[in-house]
Amino acid sequence: MKQQSKAYLFGLSAVLAWSTIATAFKISLQHLSPAQLLLYASVFSLLSLLTILGWQRRLGALLPALRQHWRRSLLLGAVNPFVYYLILFQAYALLPAQEAQALNYTWALTMTLLAVPVLGQRLRAQDALAAVVCYGGVLTIATRGAPFALQFSNLPGVGFALLSTLLWAGYWLCNTRDEREPVIGLTLNFLLSLPLTLLWCALTGELHAVAWQGIAGAAYVGMLEMGFTFVLWLSAMKLTLSTARIANLIFLSPMLSLFLINLLLGEPIRPSTLAGLGLILGGLLLQKLPARRLLAAASSD
Fold first, then answer.
1. CA neighbours within 13 Å on the CB side: how many for 228?
2. 12-33: per-residue pLDDT in tens?
3. Are 46 and 194 in contact (CB under 8 A)?
4. CA proximity to 45, closest of 168, 183, 190, 184
5. Whole-angstrom Cα distance, residue 99 to residue 92?
6. CB count, 10 Å around CB of 71?
7. What is the C-alpha separation between 193 and 45, in angstroms, rounded?
C-alpha cells in the first residue's frame, strides 16, 4: 500500500471512531457519573497505550521518560485527561449529544484565538471573521434557533462545553513546547492523572459498584477516544504527504456523528443544530482558506 493511501486509511479510521464517541458518551453516562466514566475510561486508555508501547517494544523507554518529565506529565495530565474530560463529560450529561458534540468542534478556532496571548501570534482579520461565524453557530445551537432572544436551553451545559474547548486548545498549545515523544507523553499523562481521578471519586463518594454496561461503555470510550484512535491519527499525520488533506478529513466526523446520534440514541436532529453546525464548520473552513484566495474572490466581485 502506498504511503499516502495508508495515511488516508489511518485518518479515516480515526474519524470513523471519533464519530461514534458522542453516542458512546451518552450511553455510558446512563450508567455512570461523569467522574466514574473518567475513572474507568482512564484505566482502559492507559492499558491500551501500554499495549501499543509493548507492541512497539518501547515499554523500556517509559521509566526513563517518567524520571525526566514527571513534573510536566503531572501538570499536563491534570489538564488532560483529568479536568478536561471531567468537564466534557459533565457537558454531555447536561446537553443532548447533538448539541454537545457540535459545540465541541469550536476547539480548533479557540486554539487560534488562544495562540494570540499564549504564543504571541497575530490575529488575522480572516480569523476574526471566522470567530464571528463560528460563535454565531454556537449561539444558534445554545438557544435552539432563537439567538436574538438569548434564552439558552441549558446555560451550565453550554458553559461546560465551551470551557472544555478552552482547556483542550490550551493543552495542545502547551504541547507545542513538549519535548516528550507523543505516545509516551500521553501514556505518562494518563498514568499520573489516574491517582487524581481516583482521589476525586473518593472525595465525592463515587467509588462504588457500577453496572457492567457502564464498564463496557468506559472501555469503548477509553480505548477509542482517549487511546488507540490518537495513535491512528498521529500515524496518519506522520505518513501523509499533505497535512491539510488529512486534517480536512475531520470535517466528515460531525455529520456521521449526528447520523449515529439519531440512529442509536433516537434524538431527533433539530434544524437549529444543523444550522449552527453548518456555521461552525463554515467558520473553520473560512479560517483554513488562504488569505490570497479570499482577496481574489473579493476582487472578482
1. 16
2. 888 888 899 999 999 999 999 9
3. yes
4. 190
5. 9
6. 9
7. 12
Those residues with Cβ within 8 angstroms of residue 171's Cβ, 6 or more apart along the chain or in another chain? 76, 79, 80, 84
CA-based end-to-end distance of the chain: 44
> Which residue, 214, 191, 164, 213, is CA-closest to 72?
191
Among 159, 165, 157, 182, smallest CA distance to 108 is for 165
Give 203's contacts (C-beta < 8 A, 6+ positions apart): none
Which cell numbers in the block locate residue 2?
502506498
Q: Is the pTM value of this prediction over 0.85?
A: yes
pLDDT (tens digit, 9 = 90+) per residue, 42-85? 999 999 999 999 999 999 999 999 999 999 999 999 999 999 99
Amino acid at 73: S
The answer to whether the beta carbons of residues 79 and 171 sit under 8 Å apart is: yes
For residues 165 and 7, the answer to whether their CB atoms sit within 8 Å is no
